[in-house]
Amino acid sequence: MMETLYKTDKPTDFENGEYYQARLVRRDDHGVTTYVVEEKHGWFSDAEKRPVHHITTLSPEEGYKTYGEAEQAYNERLKHRTKEGFIHSFSIDFFAIGGVVYRRLDGENQG
Description:
Number of strands: 6
Shape: globular
Order of helices and strands: EEEEHEE
Helix content: 10-25%
Structural class: mainly beta
Strand content: over 45%
Strand order of the largest sheet: 4-3-2-1-5-6
């Protein structure tokens, strides 16, 4: 699960292309499965058509034992960023028409 959050619904340059990218990943370590919430921060450069200054802001060593716990933490991370104005979510869905799924988050209901 991964979403990229912007303050605008048209991220095109350094001024308004700032984003946070949250993702929930499954880790398998010697037969033990954990789920981790990670986050990256950067800007999308429309001129270069790529993310720039894409740095990790959250990547804990320890994860959650269940997917449900990790999903709750993921939604809390989204809620935290929406309170900072990052309310426009973009994600990839290979089964959706066009492949990109857009939703507007309100800071309260991300699940």
